[in-house]
Structure formats: structure tokens, C-alpha cells
């Protein structure tokens, strides 16, 4: 609870003059402390702009220790500065969480406007574009209510950044022009610098990268006048990006040299961009080994920060450098990681299947480009050979004609083979080799119809790895992939002799269709599979794996969808019942019985030998 500014005056001295004197003396320490805190807060606001981050953080810690001396508005202001420093350090989740808490405590509309702008900016840096755009829209709706030129110009410049990213550079350019008009009315050099950088980026998209590079090169002096090392380093990074897009490696070298001088390692996001530009420059200067090593380090840091878009760009560059050096295996692995990063960047509300096809198509296209590169080299060698044998034109033409026909036949056979492979990949899960979701259910429909026609039973099993997300978090995604592959192999070895249909129908969810089996037989097979998985995971993985399983039999009426729904409900019951067990849907029996199995127990719940 805040301390009272003034204590109750003493009544020992009579008269109004004495009472006023005592009141003034009692209030003096509190008023002095409040004034001192306000002065120190103003000093911190200046210090965070012109001094290294370490100095600002030390002063921030001192002020946080005395925060009970501050007013509510000053407390919010201090926490806002703390959130900004968290973002500079690269701790975006903590920064955004603190801003959300401060939004409910903001005492003034202008302070709330600043919080929304900071949330939009940090959300953009963290890749949370939907939340960032929502915060920006809220701030823009409040913009006309305040006559703060500095804040208005900052918000308009941030809007320009968003529209540039959304592929609407003309709209972004209009926002920067509005921001620059406001800047003429008294905005700081920092805001003017940001506006010119965003204008250069918009012009690069509207006209060409060279135009944006020329504009930013002419106006970079405005950023230097701000004396804000964070802002100056960011501006030189932007200059380097435009130089890279324009193919001007002289300008890129200058920008990288300046960025390395201004950018501190404490500003993690900007520091990673400077390292990325240095790596691209090294690659151009034929220092590919250094560039590749640096890009791998950058990729790891970006992955830890979940900056998927920049990670995808970095991995794409890595793949190209590895390809140029003839390291086709490494290039292919980088392309695979690029695919995963691109998928992570896609909006979660989009269709995951469409996104996967898009990325898979790009990866296949780039893989084909690698092969085309090799073919072009072979064709060039044939052309040079033909030139050297021009004197024997008739013989050479006949030989070339035969060779072309042979190449076409080989190419045609390879294309047919690849088409068959792509058709197979379209039906199979790329990691486990099992049937994918759509192919499994298409074939299951056919299998169910055959079973009904021959009066054979049909059983559907749904199996889900327990706590798979925790397994991934604890042991890493590579081990998570190994776990999925191990489960697929165990399912095939356990059910392969039963003419079973096995597919991966979700992230860690697998389905098995068993023709000619009863639910009890299916339960026995699945229990053996669970026990095998438990034993093998102890030997081959850093942690044990357990399964929750739902089993349902075809009732002859509802079709495959009804059978799947019953198995899914049984699986849901197994999860709710504590996991690591089998639930059987017994719709045709009077009671719904469950079989719960723990590792080391049999279907009859007796200890194993």
C-alpha cells in the first residue's frame, strides 16, 4: 500500500501558523522523495537512449527497489521501460506478458496508447502478427484523441512497417509521409530516423531496392543525430538489408562495419541481424566456410527465439551455400529444416494440409533445381565436345542425336520413376512411411466394405502417445521424431501378420484397421505392442513411451465414421482415465467395460513373468 504523502499535524503548537508549519515539515520528506524519484525516472528515460543497456539496467534495478515512492503513473512508466529492456534482451514472451498487465493498470489514455504501440512493435518482432496488428488497430483508433506529435508520428511509422510487411507498400508509404509531416512539428530525431527507414523500405518494394538504398544512404545522418545506439545500429542493419537486396556489396560492407560498431550483443534481435549480414558478405567474399558456420549458429539462436520467418530465410541461404559447395546432403537437410520453419510461420488458422503441400512443393522444386544444375553442366560438356568435333559434323550430329535420344529416354524413365515416388509420397507420411490421414481412411472404407461382404468382423484402433509434447520439450524434437518412427516400426511388427491397415492420422495419433479380428484379439495384439514399445523405448530413447488406446468394432450399421467415432471416444476415455491404458467400446454389450494396463501388466492385470 503506498505510503501517505503527509502525516497528521501535531496539535501541540496552537494557532493556524504553527499548524501550517508543522504540516509543511511533515510533508517535506515525502515530497522530496517523490520529486527525487521523478527526476531519477526522467534520467533513466534519457539514459536508455544514449547509454549502454547495462547502465540502464543497473539504474532500473535501483528504481525498482524504491518503487513504493512512486505514483501509480510513475510505476507503470517504470515497468514499461523494464518491458522494453526485456524485448531488447530478446525475452519477448516476458515483455508482452508485462505489457498486458500494465494495460489494465494504465492511469492515462496517453500512457495506454504508448503501451499498445510497444505491444504492437514487440509482437511484430516476436512474430505474433495477429496480436500485433490488433494492438496497432486499437492504438490507431485512439490516435486522434491525443495531441502528442511524438507519439502520433511513432504510431504512424509503426503502421507503415506493418503494411510494408503485408505486401501493401503504397499504403505503408502513405503512413510514412504522414509521420514525416508530423515530424516537422517537433518530433524527435529517433522518430524521424524510423520514418525515413520505413520510407526507404516502402520505396524498395514499390520501385526497386536500389531506390530505397539511395534514399536511406542520404538520410542515415538523421539517425546519427539521435545519439541512440540501438536506433543507429538498427538503421545500419536496414541499410545493409537494402544493399543486399540491391546486390551492392560495397554498400553492404560499409553498413555491416557500422552496424558492428553500434549494435550491442545485449540487443539480441539486432545483433543476430548484423551477424546474418556479415555472413552474407563473407559468402560473397568467397569465405563460404566462415559464412556457413555463422549461419548455422544464427539459425540455432533464431530457432530458440521462435523467429520462424527469419529462420526460414537463414536456412534457405544455408541450403544455397551448401549446394554451391557441392554438399548436396547438407543442402537437402537445410531445405528440410526450412520447410519446418516455414510451416511454423504459417498462420495457425490456415489449413495445415495446404500449407504442407505448399512447402513440400517448394522443397521438391528446389531439389529439382539441384538436379537441373547437374544436367546443365552435363549439357554444357556435350556442347563443348560438339564444338571441338565440328570438322566431323555428320558423325558428330549422328552421335549427338543418339546421345540426345538416350538422355531423353533416361530423363523420361527418371521422371516416370519420380512421378511414382511422388504419388507414393502423396499417400505416405514422410517421417514414418505409414499411410497418411486421407489415404488411410480411403483404404479403410474399402477394407470395411470387403469385411461386410464376406461377413467378417472389422476393428478400428486409435493409439496416441502419452504426454508427447512434454517428451519433445524435455528431450528435443529429433528424439520426438525417433519416438514416432519407433512406434511406427513397433506397430508394423505387431500387426503386420494380421493384414492390418496402419496409418499416422495426426501428430502423435496412429490408427489401425484390423479385418477378421474381434476386439479381444485386437486388445491382445495391442497389449503386446504396448509392452514392446515400452521395452524398446527404454533401450533406444532418452525416456520411456506409453500409449493410450481406444478400440471399437464395426456394428454393421453406422459405417467407418461411426466406428472411428467410437474408437475416438474410447481413446478419449483412456486419456481421461489416467493414460497408459486401453479402453474398448463395447456398444453391443450391456455395460461398457475398460481394460486398464500399466507397463509390466498383462491384459488380465497380472504381473508379467
Layout of strands and helices, then pairs:
Blueprint: H1 16-50, H2 53-65, H3 72-88, H4 92-103, H5 109-126, H6 129-142, H7 149-165, H8 169-183, H9 189-206, H10 209-225, H11 229-246, H12 249-262, H13 268-284, H14 288-304, H15 308-324, H16 328-345, H17 352-388, H18 393-427, H19 437-453, E1 458-465, H20 468-475, H21 477-495, E2 501-504, E3 509-515, H22 519-540, E4 547-553, H23 559-576, E5 582-585, E6 594-595
Parallel strand pairs: 4-5
Antiparallel strand pairs: 1-3, 1-4, 2-3, 5-6
What would you say this structure looks like, in words?
This protein is mainly alpha-helical and about 600 residues long. The chain is built from 23 helices and six strands. The protein has helices spanning about 15-50, 55-65, 70-90, 90-105, 110-125, 130-140, 150-165, 170-185, 190-205, 210-225, 230-245, 250-260, 270-285, 290-305, 310-325, 330-345, 350-390, 395-425, 435-455, 470-475, 475-495, 520-540, 560-575, and strands at about 460-465, 500-505, 510-515, 545-555, 580-585, 595. Helix 23 links the parallel strand 4 (about 545-555) and strand 5 (about 580-585). Helix 13 (about 270-285) runs antiparallel to helix 14. The protein is globular. The two termini are about 65 Å apart.
Low-confidence stretches: 1-14, 348-364, 590-609
Radius of gyration: 33 Å
Please report the number of helical segments: 23
Quaternary state of this entry equals: single chain
Largest sheet: 6 strands, mixed
- Count the beta strands: 6
Proportion of helical residues = over 70%
* Overall average residue pLDDT: 79
Structural class: mainly alpha
What strand line-up does the widest sheet have? 2-3-1-4-5-6
- The N- to C-terminal Cα distance equals 65 Å
Order of helices and strands: HHHHHHHHHHHHHHHHHHHEHHEEHEHEE
Hey, roughly how much beta strand do the residues contain? 5-15%
Described by the principal axes of the CA atoms, the overall outline is: globular
